[in-house]
Specification:
Elements lengths: L1 E9 L3 H9 L10 E8 L11 E6 L2 E11 L3 E10 L3 E12 L2 E11 L6 H29 L6 H5 L8
Length: about 160
């Protein structure tokens, strides 16, 4: 099994970040995610404990079940089925208030279930692809919650004029 973790600080309140990232239909804001839908609502909230969600990413299709829902601090899930096939032990997002906003830590533990070459394919193929997808979704969350990155003020002003008119 390979553990993959991606972190990002998003300059927004923890409640907002938690709500955005646990509502996985938002993930289509990332160019790497094609479709997401909630196939069964959870107990405490639509995307709460017991919810089942279906995702189609450029890297594959996943059916996930929420196994922990602790707003606004953590959510966990397990991939029940996927194409291509993968073994999956854990998916977890944690949300921590910081001076700069909310620290999101997204961790998954998985592997490609092939004899002999599975661990190598997981480390050198799946790991970079999965972490890139996670980073892309976190970047989409940041843009949605904080707006596009501010442009360089010098560029917005255009050429500077010198001297009096």
């Amino acid at each position: 099994m390979e553990t993959m973790t991606v972190e990002r600080v998003i300059d927004a309140p923890v409640d907002d970040v938690f709500a955005w990232l646990t509502t996985t239909t938002h993930y289509t804001a990332s160019p790497l995610v094609l479709r997401c839908r909630l196939t069964r609502q959870g107990e405490q909230a639509p995307y709460g404990l017991g919810a089942v969600r279906s995702h189609l990413w450029l890297i594959g299709w996943f059916r996930e079940r929420i196994t922990l829902y602790d707003p606004p601090y953590a959510t966990e899930y397990v991939v029940e089925r996927s194409v291509p096939s993968a073994r999956h032990e854990l998916g977890r997002m944690t949300f921590t208030r910081t001076d700069r906003g909310t620290l999101v830590r997204w961790t998954t533990r998985a592997e490609i279930p092939l004899p002999l070459v599975g661990p190598l394919l997981t480390r050198f193929l799946a790991r970079p692809v999965i972490t890139r997808a996670f980073r892309s979704i976190l970047a989409a969350a940041e843009e949605a919650l904080t707006g596009p990155p501010a442009a360089d003020p010098a560029r917005r002003e255009g050429p500077r004029r010198t001297g009096a008119r």
